[in-house]
Amino acid sequence: MSVTTLGVIGSGMVGLGVARRAVDAGLDVVLSNSRGPQTLAPLVAELGGRARAATPAAAARAAELVVAAVPLAARERLPRAELAGRTVIDLMNYAPHAGFELPELDRDELTSSELVQRHLAGARVVKALHNIGPKQLLELFRPAGAPDRTALPLSGDDPAAKKEVAGLLDVLGFDTVDLGPLADSWRSEPNTPLYALPYVGQPPSGLTVPEFVAWVQQAPGVPVSAARVGELAAAAVRGPAGFRR
Ligand SMILES: NC(=O)c1ccc[n+]([C@@H]2O[C@H](COP(=O)([O-])OP(=O)(O)OC[C@H]3O[C@@H](n4cnc5c(N)ncnc54)[C@H](OP(=O)(O)O)[C@@H]3O)[C@@H](O)[C@H]2O)c1
Fold first, then answer.
1. Mutation probe of ligand 1 site: the residue of 31, 39, 40, 70 with most atoms within 8 A of C-beta
2. Which one, of 41, 15, 242, 17, lies nearest residue 141 by Cα?
3. Domain architecture of the chain: domains with CATH
4. Whether the CB of 92 sits within 6 Å of ligand 1
5. Closest C-alpha to ligand 1, atom 37
């Protein structure tokens, strides 16, 4: 059975982008954030009748498939009990900064999604939607079979959960390429060729990191084929984890 309701935990730039795409594709969404459902009223009104707001725990209970779109630093506040038995799309990326460093990731012992799976021990974590920005997500969707349909990578340890997420992404307008287990998801993490840039093209040279981030947020989307995703994943070399600003 295909997904009809998507739970969204974290309704900032990315969570809201995914929710918008999902509503436009005909799904119901349950949005949540840290400050409470009442703070999401304007966004719910903007998204229309398919959207409602709830607490993170209630958003998790409301849907079989839940998107975790909070900062990685907040991963241990995801509602573990309510997410047990659910498929969770982990789109969080590691962005270390003073006061937030994760030694297992810095030593390349674990991928950030393996860390998330550790916390969400009863859930089926699938890494996806983490290497494309909301603007590009809202531009690059296409019907199945379109010659310029964009592909996104996904990784996970549970084949059925990966199939479920591939089904969702198909409904949202994207092909998928399976990169294997969560342990291999570093192939699409920050600092790899698959991360963000293929979907936006070449930035102007000489940008500072904040300028680069701002440029990516507004850059028009560039379609990326499944074959290209496979090539870029294969070309990845594991280096220091995390996007450092
Ligand atoms: N920005 C991008 O282009 C991009 C692309 C791909 C992936 N990502 C990843 O997506 C994630 C979100 O990024 P973003 O740019 O959307 O961040 P953002 O705009 O700062 O939004 C973060 C959201 O998470 C919520 N949140 C924080 N702690 C929470 C908690 N304990 N429980 C429930 N909700 C909580 C915040 O709610 P409150 O406002 O109520 O605190 C807010 O809605 C990050 O992990 C990032 O690495 C970002």
1. 70
2. 17
3. 5-235 (3.40.50.720)
4. yes
5. 33
Please provide the DSSP assignment of 101-144 as one string. --HHHHTTSS-HHHHHHHHTTTSEEEE-S-SS-HHHHHHH---T
The continuous run of DSSP H or E covering 214 comes out as: helix 209-218
201 lines ligand 1 (CB under 6 A): no
Distance in angstroms (rounded) separating the CA atoms of residues 71 and 200: 22
Measured from the CB, is residue 15 less than 6 Å from ligand 1? Answer: yes
Give yes or no for a contact between 169 and 153, defined as CB atoms under 8 angstroms apart: no
Residue nearest ligand 1's atom 7 by CA:
130
d(CA 118, CA 99): 21
Say what the pTM is. 0.97
10 Å CB burial of residue 53 (0-12, 13-18, 19+) is: buried
Residue with the two structure tokens 């294997």: 180
pLDDT tens string 212-243? 889 999 999 999 999 999 999 999 999 989 98
Tell me if 117 CB under 6 Å of ligand 1. no
* CA dist., res. 87 & res. 124, Å (int): 5
Kindly report, residue by residue over 54-90, the tens digit of the pLDDT. 999 999 999 999 999 999 999 999 999 999 999 999 9
Distance CA 192, CA 241 (A): 9
Strand partners, 177: 153
Q: At what angle do helices 13-24 and 159-172 cross, to 10 degrees?
A: 70
